[in-house]
Amino acid sequence: MFESFVHDVPGTRVVFAPGAIESAKREADHLGATRIMLISGGPESQYAERVKQALGSAFVSQFTDVVMHVPKNVAATAIAQAQVDDIDLLIALGGGSSTGMAKAIALETGLPILAIPTTYAGSEMTSIWGMTEENRKVTGKDVRVLPKTVIYDPELTLSLPAAISAASGMNALAHLVEGLYAPGISPVSALMAEEGVRALAASLPRVVDDPLSIDARSEALYGAWLAGWTLGTTGMGIHHKICHVLGGAYNLPHAPMHSAVLSYATAFNESDAPVAMAAMRRALGSSSAAAGIWDLATSIGAPTSLAEVGFDPVNIDEAAELIVAGRPTNPRSVTEEAVRELLRAAYEGHRPE
Length: 353
Ligand code: NAD
Known about the structure:
Strand 6 and strand 7 (136-141) form a beta hairpin. Helix 5 (162-181) packs parallel to helix 9. Helix content is 51%, strand content 11%. The radius of gyration is 19 Å and the shape is globular. The model has no long low-confidence stretch (mean pLDDT 96). 54% of the residues are buried. By secondary structure, it is an alpha/beta fold. The structure holds nicotinamide-adenine-dinucleotide. Nicotinamide-adenine-dinucleotide binds at residues 42-44, 68-69, 94-98, 100, 118-119, 121-123, 126, 128, 130, 156-157, 159-160, 164, 168, 171, 231, 254-255. Residues 42-44, 68-69, 94-98, 100, 118-119, 121-123, 126, 128, 130, 156-157, 159-160, 164, 168, 171, 231, 254-255 line the site of nicotinamide-adenine-dinucleotide (NAD).
């Protein structure tokens, strides 16, 4: 039966090309910016100098204290800096942590964001923000945090180590998997999501084999764009709920944790989301979506168990309680007992049958 749908897509201008970082000034001009704050820390800030040079006098300050999961107190410092410097555009240069920090500033100030992602996290294509305080991650949706422009430059991902690339690619895959069965799915997002799964499954093994291949990096970043777009236009299910809870409560590394959980969350939903599973099987070239995801992760050396990413199984009961209390929207109904089982399977890491 043909399903009814609502397709509601807020616009983001996307510029995708090797070397596109050089267009940062033109894109900032396009947004009418004259006082720009750059948010970039960690190894990816090696590209910050090129952006600063290009921006010239429009560059005002840089915020470098980029911390994963956006601690609220760090965000408060960044917000104060943007206000003192009278900023009119935020440029987030880096992974999801840089984009997340820019979003926290935008949420408070309404400032526009230009994002230049250097991982496959996908945050640049969504209006979802997240912050942590006292071991709890709070997330929300607000169109003010959706970047106005995204510059995808695959050259900036050449320095992303193979292990981080693999885990980050699995994080992107998670957006596509859940987008395929999320309540907000439309025929267009279903096409994009399946194409995203195909692009990531084809490119990630090549990225890990040859991290300097611009062709493989371009296809992976293209898949990441589709993944971010899917996350931003559809929704999430049990998998993302688990990762939000585990990331916030036990400070697990974001992308490796997604990789560790994804095949078990997919197995959990396998019998309740037949159309999504068929799309994944086609795109992965596998007879089982869950096993295909596990095989892909294994082939690229990405984590397939929560044990690998430092989760302590004594927390399973508490985590299951928090996950169910978060009332995830999901094709299969979510009970504490079922989540405990899912977490135990993800902890042990055996290939889902
Ligand atoms: P990250 O930004 O922390 O980057 C991971 C690591 O890679 C860091 O050590 C970083 O310094 C390094 N790195 C990044 N780019 C690099 C490059 N080109 N070369 C070398 N090193 C590089 O992590 P992430 O996985 O990109 O993002 C995770 C964060 O994003 C989490 O807080 C997560 O909640 C958030 N996120 C939000 C959304 C959303 O829609 N709001 C979506 C996905 C992820």
